[in-house]
């Protein structure tokens, strides 16, 4: 009967990868005993945005097998590395950028990292905004200092299940850094290669606003899986977001999606929705870049950041936190799609060699 169950599972497609679970190697275990089928599915990311649909489709397909009266579905996860991993131990480097400041890029970065870790992924967060570091404060570790381990590498600070490094934990509080490009490049190199990141599924990099030295250093130093653009709906932000997209295009970094932050406001007393900045403007950036989510204006996001606990952990049921959780899961889905497309692109060459 196991063969019949596997045949049924071969008809179930991953909704994002558009291939069946069996050929993708996502079925870790399948057995039947006394009419009860047990199936374990290994997802391509712990933050799979369509886990519920996969579970429903598996149940429906296996219940159609004669003799099966119940289906128990369990899940595991293994993030697939790209064809060329970014760094030793780090599978995917994801850049979070914006064309201008003030769009909530750091807040989105912190919440993406915390959400992915909450779902079970191994996550690092690099605060590459050297001149205006804010990640340490938002992670509740503004007073902590980066130390060195036995191998004399920087030991990232850990908070909320995320390893992070920020210039705020390396320099005196309130001290301005007056550095030129070569010093910035050297600092970024150290953050990447002289930090003991360990084994990570995702390294989220919070970039400074604009299209300057830090962005160039990163894209020229390591293999980047892709970038996320954070913007607000109004035209002035979208114009700068388009410039950031163009920069990544010229640097051969795929844009995995767009996050529309401060997309709308829901009045707490009436429940009425106000589009303060003209909701939906990010769609003007073009259909080729997926909209990862629209995040509403929510005072809890700001307050939680000031208190040092990301909103996805402090108020996970709020509308803004739910939107940010979905952003993180949609991003993880885009990463999985890209990793699969790379492996399929390499398949003919592999067959030729054999």
UniProtKB/TrEMBL annotation:
SUPFAM superfamilies: Fe-S cluster assembly (FSCA) domain-like, P-loop containing nucleoside triphosphate hydrolases. The keyword Hydrolase applies. Pfam families: FeS_assembly_P, ParA. In the N-terminal section; belongs to the MIP18 family. PANTHER family: IRON-SULFUR PROTEIN NUBPL. Binds and transfers iron-sulfur (Fe-S) clusters to target apoproteins. Can hydrolyze ATP. This is Iron-sulfur cluster carrier protein. It comes from Deinococcus seoulensis. The lineage of its organism: Bacteria, Thermotogati, Deinococcota, Deinococci, Deinococcales.
């Amino acid at each position: 009967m196991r063969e019949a169950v596997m045949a049924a599972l071969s008809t179930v497609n991953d909704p994002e990868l558009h291939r069946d679970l069996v050929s993708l190697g996502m079925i870790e275990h399948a057995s039947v005993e006394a009419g009860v089928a047990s199936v374990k599915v290994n997802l391509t990311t712990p933050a799979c945005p369509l886990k519920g649909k996969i579970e429903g489709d598996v149940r429906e397909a296996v219940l159609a097998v004669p003799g099966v009266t119940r289906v128990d579905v369990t899940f595991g996860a293994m993030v697939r590395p790209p064809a060329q991993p970014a760094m030793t131990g780090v599978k995917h480097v994801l850049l979070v950028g914006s064309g201008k400041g003030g769009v909530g890029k750091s807040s989105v970065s912190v919440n993406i990292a915390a959400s992915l870790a909450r779902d079970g992924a191994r996550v690092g967060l690099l605060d590459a905004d050297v001149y205006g570091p804010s990640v340490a404060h938002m992670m509740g570790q503004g007073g902590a200092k980066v130390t060195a381990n036995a191998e004399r590498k920087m030991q990232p600070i850990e908070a909320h299940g995320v390893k992070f490094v920020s210039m705020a934990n390396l320099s005196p509080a309130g001290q301005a850094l007056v550095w030129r490009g070569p010093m910035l490049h050297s600092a970024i190199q150290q953050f990447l290669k002289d930090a003991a990141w360990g084994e990570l599924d995702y390294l989220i990099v919070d970039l400074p606003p604009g299209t300057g030295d830090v962005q160039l250093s990163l894209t020229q130093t390591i293999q980047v899986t892709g970038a996320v653009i954070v913007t607000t709906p109004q035209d002035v932000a979208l114009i700068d977001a388009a410039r950031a997209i163009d920069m990544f295009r010229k640097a051969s970094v795929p844009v995995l999606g767009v996050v529309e932050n401060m997309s709308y406001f829901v009045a707490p007393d009436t429940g009425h929705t106000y589009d303060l900045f003209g909701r939906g403007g990010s769609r003007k950036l073009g259909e080729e870049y997926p909209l990862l989510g629209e995040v509403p204006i929510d005072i809890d996001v700001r307050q939680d950041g000031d208190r040092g606990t990301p909103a996805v952990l402090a108020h996970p049921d709020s509308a803004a936190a739910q939107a940010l959780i979905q952003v993180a899961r949609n991003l993880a889905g885009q990463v999985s799609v890209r990793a699969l497309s790379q492996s399929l692109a390499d398949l003919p060459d592999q067959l030729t060699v054999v």
